[in-house]
Amino acid sequence: MSLIIAAIDQLSGLSELRTVSGAADLPAVQERLPQRHELPAAFVIPDIDRAGDNALVGAVSQMVTTTFAVLLGLGNLAEPRGKKAAVEMETLRKAVRDRLVGWQPEESEDPILYASSRVVGFDAGVVWIEMRFIATELVRG
Hints:
This protein is α+β, with helices and mostly antiparallel strands. Helix content is 25%, strand content 40%. The chain has a five-stranded mixed β-sheet.
């Protein structure tokens, strides 16, 4: 199983999320705008692979660091000070972080690490938050 599919499966058990999917489904959702019953939503997206130096002569042994993103879509809760939205956003980020950090998928040499999080957009009543996570894999050949 791929790391991305394993992460989708891992997040699928979160009660805080109504939709969990992969990158292929994201454009269609963004194009038509997510419905309230679909939010909060999470889309797991491959990001960057960085390979370390080969540790062997005459064979291959490389540590590959993979960064993947979880794009969260949260209903933009309009209110005077944004307190409810801020609390919901932080609760959702913490739930996703707690679900992934320390979890070790079969494909990873080490447990998943947290890298970063940021708001990447506001669109038609949806706040989009990108969270990045790191996995490592040993490639041999």
